[in-house]
Amino acid sequence: MDTRSPNKVSAYFIIVVIWLLFACGFVAGLESVMPNRGYIHDNAAVKDETVRLAKNMQRYYIYYKNFSQETAVEYLNSLRAAIVREGGSYSQGTPVMDVFGREVETDENYVDRGDAKPQRDSAGESFALLAGKVPYPQELYAADLSGMTAEEMTEREKLLSEAVENYRSVENYLSAMHDLHFYLYDKRRGICVATNTEDIFNEKYYDYVEISDSIFDETFNGEALNLSFAKQNYICLISLPVQGLSQGMENEINYTYRLYSANKVISSVYLPVIFYVAGAILMLYVLLYRRTEMVAMREKLFGWYMLLPVTLKIILVIIIAAYFYRLLFYKNYAVSYLAAGANISGILFRVLSAAAAMVIFVMAFEHMIKYCRRIIGIKDEPEARLVEGCLRDMRIAAGANEQLVLCASVIIIIMWILPLVPLVMYVSNAPAINGVFMLCMYCLYCVALWIVFKYINNNAKLRYYIREMANGNIRAIPEEKGPFSRTINNLDHVNEGLCANLEEMIKSERLKTELITNVSHDLKTPLTSIINYLSLLKTLDLDNEQAREYIDIANDKAKRLNVLIQDLFEASKLNSGQMKLEKMPSDVVALLSQTLGELDYKITRSGIDFRVDLPNHPIIIDMDGQRMWRVFDNLLTNIIKYSPQGSRGYINLQENEDSVVITFKNISNYPLDFDGAELFERFKRGDVSRSTEGSGLGLSIAKSIVELHGGTMEIVIDGDLFKTIVTLKK
């Protein structure tokens, strides 16, 4: 039989008991000593009943002091008879039950607060408002009926009926009061005005108060309740007798007694010491004999704590801080009240919540110590990765110039942080079930905000990645996780396919360039030998005329092949980026004039009339003179080759603020039924039959050289008009 598992369970049980003992000691140690002021002050129900009695006494013995019920009823009957004669009608008050279950002829609002019943008259005003016009109720039956209108009689009838009803309700309340004894003494006359006991001074009572006590310091009927008796020279005493209490009042007295007894035990300095000593003894036992299980349990608890999301960790720490603050710096009698009410579940919940708070506090403290020892480890935590991901999303949104997205992200973060303070204040003061509910609602709120945040930022990132892909600035898109990430990951797959195809194209182009370079190099050596031998043959004095003709033809073809190989070699260097320019400030006007001068013999022999429009002043730009000469030579040679004899060729150089535009125009010998941009392709020629000299690489080489200089070159075809425009930056 395996005994390790039972031993492990027993060790875990002992550890849990240790935490509960420490929690009990913590809760008991923070329980304040309750000052024993008396039953009336410390029991809310008895206090409310005492204040209610004082209000009714003030109403009956001060406000209704000179009120005659018999006279009021007689006057009320006369009023009602007069109203009937005038053809009017009147209404009666409705008796109700007061909050103590006694049947009285008043409304609940009056018995609870001591004010008048808010019954409305014909003018829409309540009796409480009209009481300002009628200082005392006896004045309601002091007016002559003969001078009143029907409306005035109806209004007065309502007020007087209400006054009689209130008077009877107060009288019934005072006559039915047995739980509290009162004694009203008139100092001016030296007599007892009213009492509901035989001898209040000699009977046994639990507690008593005078009307000057602070519990009566509130406004009633427009003046302070305790001062209203002093103005009439009254002394009022209210006592809580031992005999004659109702069952409800007896229960309240017993509850207060249990409260004092429980507080005396719980707030004692000995009780937390007992709990702490018992917990320390068990802790010592665990450290000596169950250390392995304790370490395992601690690691498991810490592992569970680390799995919590950062939002919940922050909320828990703040709530625990607020919980400890309230316990340490505020008077606390919570456990005494729970014990007095025999609320075992409430006490258990408070102990368990204290134990949980202590456990989470220890976990949070250990977490903080861990970061202090290895601060760089923070970036490996899930929370840090989450924050880093959010910051990266916002940085991409900012880089994509998505200002609206960036502002929305900031607003969402603010919306996440702002509710924390009121939430913590509410949870630390609210009942447990309400606090848990609010925490759950806040977690759902955070999840909703996070989903909105991810949706907004993922859309911004999608647009950013598409733009970067279009500009060729991105090779790989980071893999995204979470909601709304499938589109970005699919875009990454598309990007991977495009990059693979591009690499294949680059590889193919590189192999092609290497092939051309190698072939050109391999052909150049034997071709040079052929040209040399043909030159030697031409120096021989051959008698055969046909042989000399064949030698000349072979020599011309060899030279043409040599030009083709040189063009191929230069085109491959340009295409592979191996050609380096040697730029220096040069006069483009002088270079173009020099090129025209070198080709003057060809121009004269071609019979083409060149019209040249060049500035009279030098224009200096940074360029490689030798390479740019090659461009001008190629373009002028093309005009000579492909223009009909006797036509004109135009060369124009125009200087702008930041550029120089050189235009070459001529009439073509051949029909131009294709796009001019096709001529920039290698081996593309205007002579479809390819009967003229040329390799088809000249324009491609010229365009590459111009682009290496940061300029542009374009061809415009309009019918037979062939125009080449070269733009160079200054």
Percentage of β-strand residues: 5-15%
Spatial arrangement of strands, main beta sheet = 10-12-13-15-14
Mean pLDDT: 76
Number of helices: 24
Radius of gyration over all CA atoms, rounded:
54 Å
Structural class: alpha+beta
Low-confidence stretches: 93-133, 682-692
**What is the molecular shape?**
elongated
How many strands, what sense, and barrel or not for the largest sheet?
5 strands, mixed
Per DSSP E runs of 2 or more residues, the count of β-strands stands at 15
- How many separate structural domains? 4
Helix content: 55-70%
Verbal overview:
The chain folds into 4 domains: 4-30 and 268-373, no CATH class; 41-241, no CATH class; 382-471; 584-729, Histidine kinase-like ATPase, C-terminal domain (Heat Shock Protein 90), CATH 3.30.565. The chain is of the alpha+beta class. The two termini are 95 Å apart. The strands form 5 sheets. It has a 5-stranded mixed beta sheet. A hairpin with a 5-residue loop joins strand 1 and strand 2 (103-104). It has 24 helices and 15 strands.
Features:
single chain, 730 residues, alpha+beta, five-stranded mixed sheet, four-stranded antiparallel sheet, 15 strands
Summarize the structure.
With 730 residues, the protein is of the alpha+beta class. It has helices at 4-29, 39-42, 44-63, 69-85, 108-113, 127-130, 150-176, 225-231, 247-266, 270-289, 291-307, 310-329, 334-340, 344-373, 382-399, 403-417, 420-429, 432-471, 486-539, 545-576, 588-598, 600-606, 625-642, 698-708; strands spanning 96-97, 103-104, 181-186, 191-195, 205-210, 219-220, 223-224, 234-241, 584-587, 609-613, 620-623, 648-655, 659-667, 712-718, 721-729.
